[in-house]
Each structure stands twice: as C-alpha cells, then as structure tokens.
Amino acid sequence: MPLIPAEAHLINTEPCAAPPRHVAIIMDGNGRWAAARHLPRVAGHREGARAVRRTIEAAMRQKIDWLTIYAFSSENWRRPAGEVLDLTGLLRQYLRTEIAELGSNGVRMRFIGDRDRFDEGIQKDLAKAEADTAGNKRLNLTVALSYGARAEILAAARGMADAVAAGKLARSDLTEETFGRFLSTDGIPDPDLIIRTSGEQRLSNFLLWQAAYAELVFLDVLWPDFDAQHFAAALAAFAGRERRFGARPA
Ligand code: IPE
Ligand code: IPE
Ligand code: MG
C-alpha cells in the first residue's frame, strides 16, 4: 500500500510557505492515552506506532527533508521490565513490518542512540534498515532509540580527546563544526522545529547540542492522537516565528 493515500488531497494540509528543513518530534503521551481509556500502557504504545506512520506521511506531503523522532530515551530503560519488553517487542515488529514499505517510498532510515543495549536481533534489523535504504532521498528519517543527549555529547568529547591524543586533530582544530562531526547526528542538519506532544514542556535529554536555535512547539495532543492536522498546526506556528539567531531583526 502506498504511504500517501489517493484521498490525500482531501485532507486540509496545505504546504506552508517556508517549511522547516528538519522537524524533530518528542512523541509523548502514550501512557496517558491508554490510561484515559482504561487500557494497558502497551495499547498506547501500539497506537503511537500508528501515529508514527501518519506523521511520516504528513512529513512527506509537506515536503520536509529531515524528520527525527524520539522513540525511546536512554532513561526509558528505567521503566518497569514489562513495559521495556513491550516497547522493544513493538520496535522489533515495526522493523520487520514497516521498513520495506518505507524504503520503497523513498525513506532513508538512520538510528541514533546506544543500540548496543538492544538484543542482537534488533541490532541486525537496525543495520539492515539503514543499509537497505541508504540510497533513498525523499525523506531522511532518523529514529532516536536508547538516545540521550548528554551521553552523546560526552561520547563526542571523548572521541575528540582521543583524536587529539593520537595526533589526528590539533587542539586549534576543535571548533563547533569539528565537534559536530563526533556527534551521532554527523551529516544531519540541526532541527529547525522541535515538536513535543502531551503538554509537557521540556526536552527530556533530546538533541541538546543540536537544538541550540530550534523553535519549540508544545502541543496539548497525546501522541497516539497526533495527525496531519496537528503537524500542519505546528508548521503554522513555526511559520509565525521570527528566527533571529542572536542578531538584531532587520
Ligand atoms: C511516550 O509515551 C513513549 C515513550 C516515552 C517510550 P509515554 O510512555 O511517556 O506516555 P506518558 O508520558 O506516560 O503519557
Ligand atoms: C521523552 O518522554 C522520551 C520519548 C518521548 C521517547 P518521557 O515520557 O520519557 O519524558 P519525561 O520522563 O516525561 O521527561
Ligand atoms: Mg512520557
């Protein structure tokens, strides 16, 4: 089935005038969505996976080049074992069932985060998804899994220190740009817009370095209810922002 349904034109999601190049999303609120329906939390996570599919479609329709989604944080391992098992199970299922179709729709997949913490089967599926879609150009989809920005920054600092110690880098080469090359987002532009659902207003250790000048949009919708209209609303909010990057407005 194509990712963009034929009836797509019926949905009122006009591409906005100056869309952000890179949109990142903190997909939050699955548990509350389930609780409101007296369902187990896993039902919220399952419905959240459907929202991911809708969001990828919406991003492609809006001609977004880069989409990054926060699916599992390094801190989420602290959740009860049963929930972690449900989440990794859903991830495994998602990788097995969705990647081929994403690939055939021109999506290039990347994963950031500490993938060593997942079992070998998932690690293989992640590597395969990246390899199989490496030639795609329509949408760059990055999924943050077992991701934490502080750990990422620390690893980059260590990598840079090692390179200096080995004589591969001079101390005078240590610029913001060089540092960026040691981050897991090397080659990915900084996010222009970060959306968080569920009404929480925090970054929860997401892209702390890369978010320096991102516009933040917090939406009151719970992630499983997120759809193309919410995506369009976030883009509209972005379009209304004046980005100054520290300079004086003209
Ligand atoms: C987001 O939903 C999914 C993950 C963090 C894995 P939550 O599970 O955090 O849902 P709430 O915040 O408890 O509602
Ligand atoms: C952030 O959500 C992580 C993801 C959406 C994957 P959390 O629900 O884990 O964040 P906190 O604990 O409310 O900050
Ligand atoms: Mg949450």
- The tally of helices reads 7
In CATH, what is the class?
Alpha Beta
Helical fraction equals 40-55%
Helix and strand succession?
Answer: EHHEHEHEHHEEH
Q: And the CATH topology?
A: Undecaprenyl pyrophosphate synthetase
Number of strands: 6
Bound molecules: 3-methylbut-3-enyl trihydrogen diphosphate, magnesium ion
Strand order of the biggest β-sheet: 3-4-2-1-5-6
The major pleated sheet works out as:
6 strands, parallel
Decide which structural class fits the backbone: alpha/beta
Which word captures the global form? globular
The CA-CA distance between the termini, in Å, is: 48 Å
Q: In CATH terms, what is the architecture?
A: 3-Layer(aba) Sandwich
Number of structural domains = 1
State mean pLDDT (0 to 100 scale).
94
Radius of gyration: 19 Å
Q: So, the CATH homologous superfamily?
A: Decaprenyl diphosphate synthase-like
Low-confidence residue ranges = 4-13
Q: Tell me what portion of residues adopts beta-strand conformation.
A: 5-15%
Account of the 3D structure:
The chain is an alpha/beta fold. It is built from 7 helices and 6 strands, in the order βααβαβαβααββα. Strand 3 (107-112), helix 4 (120-132) and strand 4 form a beta-alpha-beta unit. The longest helix is centred in the middle third of the chain and has 24 residues, at 81-104. The N and C termini lie far apart (48 Å). Residues 4-13 have low confidence and may be disordered. The site of one 3-methylbut-3-enyl trihydrogen diphosphate has 11 residues, from strand 2.
